[in-house]
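Here is one chain, start to finish.
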Amino acid sequence: MILERIIDPGDIKKLTYLEMEDLAGEIRDFLVDKISRTGGHLASNLGVVELTIALFCVFDLPKDKVIWDVGHQAYTHKILSGRKAGFEELRKYGGLSGFPKRRESPYDAFDTGHSSTSISAGLGIVQARDLLGEDYHVISVIGDGALTGGEAYEALNNCGGKDTNFIIVLNDNEMSISQNVGGMSSYLNEIRTAEGYITLKKNVEDYLRNLPLLGDSVADVIVRTKNTIKQMVVPGMLFENMGITYLGPVDGHDIRKLTRVLRDAKRIKRPVLVHVVTTKGKGYPPAERHPEKFHGVGKFDKVTGRAVGGGGKPGYTNVFSDKLCSLAARDRRIVAVTAAMPEGTGLSEFSRVFPDRFFDVGIAEQHAVTVAAGMASAGLRPVVAVYSSFLQRAYDQILMDVCLQELPVVFCIDRAGLVGADGETHQGLFDLTYLSSIPNMTVMAPKNKWELQDMMDFALALDGPVAIRYPRGIAYDGLRKARAKIEYGKSELIYEEKDIALIAVGSMVSTAEHIRDKLKGKGYSCSLVNGRFIKPVDTEMIDYLSKDHRYIITLEENVKRGGFGEVITDYVAKHHPELRMTNITLPDAYVEHGDVTKLRSVLGIDSDSILEKIEGRLERYGCEKEGECTGLSS
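Its structure:
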């Protein structure tokens, strides 16, 4: 096993090309085996095995810096940088992260998890390197999907024409390349990257510009003529015209060609883009056939590729998908917008049934929101389906393009709250806070799958912006009988008693139901309210509860600052100071990766932890069972 011989990253440089090819096969076997048991990102990692080996072969890591865009393709990077043993605990609490983390290893040059950031980060490191007079290479790896993000183009525009080496590797796993184009490009690259050619090109241009009177004009004509010809025969002229040398396309699974082109790139004293063509899911037939299904996977049978476990009850994503298709069949104005996530957000079926009303804008959340605003302004009813942590990227567009104009855009926000194994960059902990801060925005959260359906009916009938946030995973199907009609800004009193009131939103309603059952079992009287609306908060319900209740507990799967509970606490302090409050929230912190059940326990928002906290308050202040809660304090 060659993989067993890679103790130090420098060991790769000692291998022959044939040994490197064998190593690539061993790494793929290792990844399929481990990820089949832990879950994770598979297809993207299988596609960059040879590229990663070539990077470790050509560059001196960690002195040289590699920044992986998004970072979900960095598993081989982690294996080769001494973290192979950590894959037994991949994405588990306290274990190896599924994304690059600076605090995890010096080989991880920059924390990533969201798309289209690597060129910006890499350019920043390049500028720091040059200002500090240091000597190392910087390589930003970005996928063709991530290149659809606006920040990537802002970064390309900024780095073009600079007189310093900066290597951008474009990992293209979508485009097919003809042999003729590839052969001509390889020939031209060999000429253009040769030191003699680069020197000659610069000397000729300098000579022409120094000619008296006509020097600059002659040089400019020659440069323009050369670029016109190159535009016709050389791929990548978009980058060349931005002042970035283009090399490629090159076969991303040929280690010899990869190492050669990367060594060429090291010699160029300006930004250079290396276009690498790879196959997503390479080497594992199920992933090659269905790369989208093996992007992020749970446990699976590595022989068949079929998922292990799961199934049965539908998830919130499935409920959203079915309901949206049903609504769209009755209203031709309804359109769906996604930012490169049709499968993950549940829009695949919509795209099949209503192809003319489905819009995938690529990894461009800002554009997705504003294009939806444009649609709404012209009479359509757009539904933007997006993950909570990705919607953060479009805050300004929600603020200025949607809410300022009070346009009827519906945001269906998946993966809200804790999402688990993807960690800090993917946890949806902040949406209630940032959405509630925006004027004219209505924010809702369903307690179960039935209420999600009702909220979609309600939202699409409302003449203004609405956000509906729901968690990842199986849709709660309890409390079906509690299905009171939704009225704007009104909560739902599910159980009415006295003394203690639990007011929960979204996923925390089922948790509050369990807590109430346990409190009842211990002899306490307790009401349960489904908040439904995070904005506006139902203050009339607080007024009503204040008559027979002394202690209010709010529950939400969001950070405390600016959240649902903080708004209620502020209202209570001003209007009902006699009431005592406790806010159950997530900490104002980044939450690492791990199983959701484990994270809820660690963070103290599972039913047992919350019950313990409540009982501590009740006992501390002498609240009698089935009696009066006096002296309670927050």
